[in-house]
Design a protein that fits this description.
Bound molecules: iron/sulfur cluster
Number of domains: 1
Strand content: 5-15%
Oligomer: single chain
Number of helices: 7
Strand order of the largest sheet: 1-4
Helix content: 40-55%
Order of helices and strands: HHEHEEHHHEH
Distance between the termini: 16 Å
Length: 140
Amino acid sequence: MSLRAAERRLRALYRRVDRQVAAAGPVCTRSGRCCDFARSGLTLFATALETDLVLAAHAPPAPERAGACPFQRHGLCTMRALRPLGCRVYFCDPRYLATAMSGIAESAQRALRQIHEEHGVPYRYAPFLELLARPRPAPA
Ligand code: SF4
């Protein structure tokens, strides 16, 4: 298992997905709803690898509102560079949802699974808030 190499691949995948999403041009009105899960009814899923990449750099603060992502402040993401794939791919713009999102999301998910398989990293895909709260081994 090579975590460092897997994380490098994951960052490269994030960059690729960001380019695909930018090319699709979804509109974001910064309502903040997508990150406020209690308000939107959305559940953000991520892998443990994605979550551990976040946790290596950011301890999750207390959320502003119950049921919101702890990294959301005043409607904005405070750790954009490391946000999981689900955050990168989802926009509430109806045109984007109806045209580009599923293709981008499915191909990104396949690539994410492949990274886990090729680097021997167990594929644990679960709600992001659960993964953030799970007990983790102390660093060696
Ligand atoms: S990680 Fe950032 S973009 Fe993703 S749900 Fe949380 S605040 Fe929103």
